[in-house]
Amino acid sequence: MTDVVVIGAGVAGIQAALDIAGHGVHVHLVEREPTIGGHMAQLDKTFPTNDCSMCILSPKMVDVVRHPDITIHTCAEVDRVEGEAGNFLVTIKKHPRYVDESTCTGCGDCIQICPVEIYNRFDAGVGVRKAIYKPHSQAIPDIVIKDPEHCIECGLCYDACGPGSIRKKDEETSLTVEAASIVITTGYTVFDARTKTPFGYLTLPDVITSLELERMINASGPTGGHVKRMSDGAAPKSIVFIQCVGSRDMTIDRPYCSCVCCMQALKNAMLIKEKSPETEVIICYMDIRAYGKGYEEYFERVKSLGVRFLRGMPSDILPDRGGMILQVEDSETSELHVLHPDLVVLSVGIGPSDASAALVEKLGVAREETGFIRPVNDAMDTAATLRPGIYVAGTATAPRDIPDSVASAESAAMRAWIDAKKKRP
Fold this sequence. Notes:
Blueprint: E1 4-7, H1 11-21, E2 27-30, E3 45-46, E4 51-52, H2 53-66, E5 70-73, E6 76-84, E7 87-94, H3 109-113, E8 117-119, E9 128-130, E10 132-133, E11 145-146, H4 156-160, E12 173-179, E13 181-184, E14 188-190, E15 207-209, H5 210-217, E16 238-245, H6 261-275, E17 280-285, H7 295-304, E18 308-311, E19 318-320, E20 323-329, E21 336-339, E22 343-348, E23 350-352, H8 356-363, E24 390-392, H9 402-422
Parallel strand pairs: 1-2, 1-13, 2-5, 13-24, 15-22, 16-17, 16-22, 17-18
Antiparallel strand pairs: 3-4, 6-7, 7-12, 8-9, 10-11, 14-23, 19-20, 20-21
């Protein structure tokens, strides 16, 4: 028995799977979404190099689907884990896709003819999708999924599908695999900005989240790379970023720093200024945490483009004569600033995956008070959990940026590979 199960197929899970499979160990990569790639697939650029996110991620996704020692299970979750290190029995529950995965070519004919349009979670609600869809154009596996909740069963997709891959009925299935070890890379969940009611998210149409801005800036996103006001579609002349929304906030039991928000705001402010130098961009912050290699230099580059940094946090955002008004006290000068932005971007924090609570019970591992999975030791051993043979990586343990997530995945992968190697005959 030399197989390894990796739970979660974001960039950390993909890296762990590739590293383990590269050493000749078969990997079962389990992902609850219809495609692998995770949150990184939603991003436009990555800091501090401003490289295209999918230009980095997509080749890894292709490597995964082509690797002979990796089996991908999408629309799937781990239902039960039995046994001990070296001899786990992992039951994987696969949810119905309503599509024959063996015959679907991903041509998209069914998508074009579908008359139903609904909220697109991948585009953070900025765009819409059909009742039968692919999450994005570079989805892997390159096949569609039907949403039975919103499908009106008009029958058009059945007629449009040449191979006849679309099913009217489908059932949940399960399989049990033997594994020497398990790697948890379940990622994170973005903070629900509605919790901070004074900021008026979903009440004021031109208050958006950093993830929604990412989808706007992305050239392949719903707005074709153009930042627009949600109220009228016009290009904003003034944009205010508000940092630490859902981070470092004891009032909502989120005392930790989300690690990526400052740099994400800097990156997006830079991209806005490069496309529209005349746009006023203000970042309201408590502290700018540019801690990584090249990050401080990136910060200075953003300031040189004319982005204004205001050390203070507004208490609320109010409607004002067809626009918005907010007041900020500069904590460095004690000066009160009254701002009238066309668009407000809430830099929302990240927290543990909403599936982690149920998963840790099934796996028998521990969680922190914050909800993140607890490693054996935050300083000495960040890959192992309290249950031998089960390892954790990426943002499943704490907020991390992409390079840190990949590094932690490589560490966990090698620990899992050592367990699998011991079981070889």
